[in-house]
Amino acid sequence: MDLDALATARHDDWERLDALSRRSRPSGVEADELIERYQSAAADLSLVQATAGSTALGERLSLSLARARLRFTGVAENPLRQLSRFALVGLPAALYRVRWLTLAVALATFVVAALYATWVLADPRVLANLGSDEELRQIAEEGFVAYYSESPAASFAGAVWTNNAWIAAQCVAFGITGVWVPWVILQNAQNLGLTASIMFAYDEADTFFLYIAPHGLLELTCVFVAAAAGLRIFWAWVSPGPRTRGAAVAEDARALFSVAVGLVFFLFLAGVIEGFVTPAPWPWPVKIGIGALALVLLLFTMLVLGRRAARAGETGDLDAFDAGARRVSAG
């Protein structure tokens, strides 16, 4: 192949590709032309490399193609702008999609926990199977409270955060199985009910609620949200509607993965409250008030910002979010 002849014949086309690549705001027609000239130049580069290997002409074409590719795929948006858009649009939209399932999971958890507690408290033999009187009394009168201060606050908060974030991620990731989320809900409700029954049996009900409330309001709600996201993905597989089953699962999974990402922040906040606020020697109204404000932040994100984002057509899909960010930066 005569590379000089090819360069001469394609010179104007390649120059036009470079010119379009430098346009800050190409029109619709120019954007279409950019893609067409990109495809043509890519074919030219493939021909050059196949017949002549690595050449200066090939390097020149590669550079032009890379510049053009950045124009129609978009360069990375400002990270702070991306983060704020995710927090104010993408995450709320994803949370809003699971609002009713979240409520259903919460109700199911509390009903099962109440049934467990009632069962244990109604039969002394069941309570005795949980431990000796001395052991259970130690838990109710000392161990329950000591749990929150037996480790340094920072390390305790970090351990709680990572453990809860891992559980939330598992709920979303394994929700498609249909059994993982119900198992997590049952385990969570069982632990809550058994702990409550021990505290109630030894007249420490007030201690139970006072120490659970500051961090539990947000922490439990985060678990409910994660469980709801996992169930939503499972339901997309069971009842995909007009979509194919694979497309339905993929679409909902992409959108609801935003939930797992967002819950990392909220669970971090819950961990900080559990590590630093719950065991603090502050008035209980102050500590519970802090926990309530944290819950309000999550509910505001889900119900107020989420409703607004949903009305604007947002789904929380991370792929769509990235594409939108690229369009913003490119346009």
Summarize the structure.
By secondary structure, the chain is mainly alpha-helical.
Report what the structure shows.
There is one protein chain. This protein has 331 residues and is mainly alpha-helical. The protein has two domains: 3-73; 79-312, no CATH class. 83% of the residues lie in helices and 0% in strands. The protein has helices spanning 3-21, 28-52, 56-73, 79-97, 99-122, 124-129, 133-146, 153-173, 180-201, 205-238, 245-277, 284-311, 318-330. Helix 4 crosses helix 11 (245-277). The longest helix is centred in the C-terminal third of the chain and has 34 residues, at 205-238. The protein is elongated and about 95 Å long. Mean pLDDT is 87; it is low at 320-331. This is Stage II sporulation protein M. InterPro entries: SpoIIM-like.
